[in-house]
Design a protein that fits this description.
five-stranded parallel beta sheet, 37% helix, alpha/beta
Length: 250
Amino acid sequence: MVEKAAAPRLCEAGVGRIGMNGKMQVLLIEDDERIVSFLKRGLEAEHYRVDAVNNGIEGVEMAKAISYDLIILDLLLPSMSGMEVCRILRAEKVQTPILILTARDAVQDKIEGLGTGADDYLTKPFAFGELLARMKALLRRAPQQETAFPLKVVDLVLDRETREVRRGERPVDLTAKEFALLEYLMRHPDRVLTRTAILEEVWGYHFDMITNVVDVYISHLRKKIDEGHPRKLIRTVRDIGYKISTEADE
């Protein structure tokens, strides 16, 4: 149960791997509807975008399909335990930080949870402020490393300092928005990014607009990146979104 006194309060936004619109994506895997409602309301007030699922199987599918900045994971879930969810995600090379949130407070449970690949462990009841602090600590660990080196997927290279893009030996001339879209795809190779996530990240739209702007810009990128190359990097995932792939053509 969440502490009644721990009402959500605003804290500094902009911690961690922030997208161009200042929002980070969190996957909440929790079956307690009251906690889900509380956390969604509080985290969205703190400028996070939150997707919530109430069972382990769907949690694994979402975590593998969409590139999240953080996963908040309950242990006592229907269909599949949180421990198993964590094991599967790490076995599948999903490196998203995982914060376990559970009523199981025995030391052995904590040891087991961290041993499965979780990054932190917070027991219920919890204070919302402590949850935010732990999230911020996890999200702070990687960002400086992202800008140190150019991004590379197969023979496509994007340099964020010089803002130059090359496919093999050929320079690619992109508009500012095309560059932002390609950078977002390349920061998450082989991960499916939904149109909604792309709209929020690249255009700053805070809702799923009825628009084909993502499809139009993906088409522009394909002409500039893939046209004339036997190996296509930008892939469509039907009814979901897009990804940039390191794998050979399907």
